[in-house]
Amino acid sequence: MIQRIPRPLRLFALLGAVLVLASAHLATGSTTSVAETLAAVFGHSDRLTAQIVHDLRMPRVLVGAGAGMCLGMAGVVLQAVLRNPLASPDVTGVGSGAVLGAVAATLIGGDFTSPTRMILVAVVGGTLGGAVLWLVAMRAGTDPVRLVVIGVMVSAAFSGGSMVLLTARPQLTGSMTQWLIGSLNGRTWAHWSALWPWLLTAAVAGLLVSAVIQLLSVDDDHGHAVGLAVSPWRSAVLLVAVVLTAVAIASVGAMAFVGLLAPHAARALFGADLRFALPAAGMLGAAAVCGADVVAQTVTSWAADPSRAGVPTGAVTAVLGAVVLIRVARRTSNSGGN
Fold first, then answer.
1. In contact, 236 and 69? CB cutoff 8 Å
2. Which of 88, 105, 115, 217 is deepest in the core (most CB within 10 A)?
3. φ/ψ of residue 44, rounded to 5
């Protein structure tokens, strides 16, 4: 049924749904009502409410949506270029490398904790993680299952490095663990100012080379036949995925499963054409993070003392993502059995 709707119209409908969800995210919280939030947005509220909405909630929503877009688009690019439906920032070493960079920057402290420098350090870590995977995979072959196994091992090694760094400064454990779990707590306009230029640049670059990514997703011989310089283009496109992943992790930490499930949902709605699947995955990633944060804040509000502990958004994406993945795996298994 949905396939009969023109894809541009589906894309606009998805954009509308994401904006509605982001608005619901903005209105989520125990200190102001929905009506007070709307009044603050249009400049008709008291000073305290305006500060809560403009200085606390808006950057939280924007940073969460921006990070989700980065992860969704990075997942599409990785799955296409590596020709592996299980590829994602979580299992390619890119995400864990970026987390290691963010944890190291927190450990060093000083100017490295600024949002912009945190992104640069995370890009270095993510590039290192992706490079290690690529070098090992070149020796072991590009079998999809083997590639995932190698990616899991590389991710585990980098995660172990992050844990070692955690033990070096136990007094910073609280601030460091946000990179491991993923959280939108404490996000400010400074984080959004550091995030959006990278997001815009990488997204435009991804869309401009979507035809190249489409060619790389087939096979190398097909690319050579049409005169494509396969290896340089693959490296350049992978760098786009690394940057997107690093920007997301430097902004909110690791958000499990977003970069894996958003691309699959995008392809189910828009097919394999990356001109549509790429922006759709970005929007679905934004919706996933915003929706997860609504759940996290709601659960936190049920606690006896919500000020003592906030449920990390990354914990919600991990739980919900695992449930969705299990359901999809069972459905696929049942279909295969029939």
1. no
2. 88
3. -120, 30
Q: For 229-285, what is each residue's pLDDT tens digit?
A: 888 888 888 888 888 988 898 889 888 889 989 999 999 999 888 899 999 999 999
Q: Which DSSP state fits 254?
A: -
- Based on its alpha-carbon atoms, the radius of gyration of the chain, rounded to whole angstroms, reads 20
> What distance in Å separates the CA atoms of residue 106 and residue 109, rounded to the nearest whole number?
5
Q: How many CB atoms lie within 10 A of CB 101?
A: 29
**Residue 215 to residue 228: CA distance in whole angstroms:** 9
Q: Are 89 and 78 in contact (CB under 8 A)?
A: yes
Nearest residue to 191 via CA among 65, 315, 296: 65
Contact 66, 192 (CB under 8 A): yes
Residue 40 in contact with residue 49, Cβ under 8 Å? yes
Q: How far apart are CA 78 and CA 84, in angstroms?
A: 8
> Three-class SS of residue 52?
helix
How far from 240 is each of 75, 77, 135, 210, CA to CA, in Å? 11, 8, 18, 12
Task: Please report, as a single letter, which amino acid is at residue 204.
Answer: V
Residues 242 and 126 sit within 8 Å (Cβ to Cβ):
yes
Q: How far apart are the first and last CA of the chain?
A: 24
pLDDT digits (tens, 9 = 90+) for 106-143: 888 766 678 888 888 888 888 888 888 777 766 666 56
Pinpoint the alpha helices (H) of 94-143.
94-108, 115-140
Q: Are 288 and 163 in contact (CB under 8 A)?
A: no
Let me know if 254 is exposed, middle or buried by CB neighbors in 10 A (0-12, 13-18, 19+). Answer: buried
If DSSP codes are grouped into helix, strand and coil, which group holds residue 89? coil
Q: What is the pTM of this model?
A: 0.89
Q: Which of 58, 8, 73 is nearest to 283 (CA)?
A: 73
Distance CA 312, CA 184 (A): 7
CA 144, CA 33: separation in Å to the nearest integer? 49
- 230: burial class by Cβ within 10 Å (0-12, 13-18, 19+)? middle
